[in-house]
């Protein structure tokens, strides 16, 4: 079926209690794609600067990702620098350099406009809207965002919510956008804004799904050691959307399995810095942990 993801491909500098890595591949689209690729063809819509190493392009290509709409522009690649201390659920942003992202205008091929599953990863909601207008009758559109856009472009984000099927947010973002203090009330409020499904990511506490009729709650996969949680939410989204695209249908069973695959994919992501762990992951590893998780989560 295929998935088109709009987002960022970045160079990250990350420090955690386990060490530090400088200028490694990051970004919402990169993390999303590394898990979605196990289920379906993934087309990345993003931009990088002239400083983005060719070896990074080669790595993404080696994983079977479609980079036809990954543009290389004059200037520097989007760079994020962050640190995790005691609370590994929350990153302390030390520096953000937008680089070429500040003038990014997504441009996709004619054939990519026919892709039926679209994931609008975390970028400016106006950019997300411009991409969506170029798609031809997508079946499922999922949207992610962050507190920065909730605070600075709330009206644009709320307008966009009317055009999507699934809204993904972490617990703090869901509370902020809905202005509710309870996650269940927040999910219901967000559904009333437009999307028929809301998925709230709760980090080490799992996830909550609501579609106007049903609530599904799954725990996180028990992790013995966390190396770097950066991109875990995007990796979760990739497993979730990738599985739905593979199935080509949305019902209670496919949603539960998609949530579980997203959870399992995220559990691998945190076992290394950046894309280290997802890059060496095999589908057999994913399936084995999925089977264990189904028993652990009892569904």
Structural account:
There is one protein chain. The protein is of the alpha/beta class and 299 residues long. 38% of the residues lie in helices and 24% in strands. It has a single domain (3-297), classed as UDP-N-acetylmuramoyl-L-alanine:D-glutamate ligase (3-Layer(aba) Sandwich), CATH 3.40.1190. It has a nine-stranded mixed sheet, sandwiched between helices. Strands 3-2-6-7 form a four-stranded mixed sheet. Helix 3 (125-133) links the parallel strand 8 and strand 9 (140-144). Helix 6 packs across helix 7, helix 8 packs antiparallel against helix 9 (252-269) and helix 9 (252-269) packs across helix 11. The longest helix has 18 residues, at 252-269. The two termini are 26 Å apart. The relative contact order is 0.16. The model has no long low-confidence stretch (mean pLDDT 95).
């Amino acid at each position: 079926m295929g998935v088109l993801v709009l987002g960022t491909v970045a160079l990250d500098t990350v420090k955690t209690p386990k060490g530090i890595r400088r200028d490694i591949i990051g970004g919402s689209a990169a993390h999303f794609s590394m898990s979605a690729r196990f289920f379906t063809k993934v087309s990345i819509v993003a931009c990088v600067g002239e400083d983005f190493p060719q070896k990074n392009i080669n790595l993404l290509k080696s994983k079977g990702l479609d980079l036809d709409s990954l543009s290389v522009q004059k200037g520097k690649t989007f760079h994020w620098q962050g640190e995790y201390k005691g609370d590994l659920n929350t990153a302390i942003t030390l520096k953000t350099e937008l680089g070429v992202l500040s003038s990014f205008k997504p441009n996709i091929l004619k054939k990519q406009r026919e892709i039926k599953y679209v994931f609008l990863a975390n970028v400016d909601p106006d950019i997300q809207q411009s991409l969506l207008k170029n798609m031809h009758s997508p079946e499922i559109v999922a949207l992610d965002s962050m507190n920065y856009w909730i605070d600075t472009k709330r009206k644009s984000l709320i307008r966009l919510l009317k055009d999507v099927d699934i809204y993904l947010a972490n617990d703090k973002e869901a509370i902020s956008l809905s202005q509710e203090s309870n996650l269940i009330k927040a999910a219901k409020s967000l559904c009333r804004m437009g999307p028929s499904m809301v998925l709230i990511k709760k980090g080490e506490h799992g996830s909550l799904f609501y579609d106007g009729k049903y609530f599904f709650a799954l725990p996180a996969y028990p992790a013995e050691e966390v190396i770097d949680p950066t991109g875990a939410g995007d990796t979760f989204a990739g497993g979730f959307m990738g599985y739905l695209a593979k199935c080509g249908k949305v019902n209670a069973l496919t949603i539960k399995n998609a949530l579980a695959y997203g959870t399992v994919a995220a559990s691998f992501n945190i076992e290394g810095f950046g894309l280290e762990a997802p890059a060496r992951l095999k589908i057999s590893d994913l399936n084995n942990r999925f089977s264990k998780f189904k028993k652990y989560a009892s569904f």
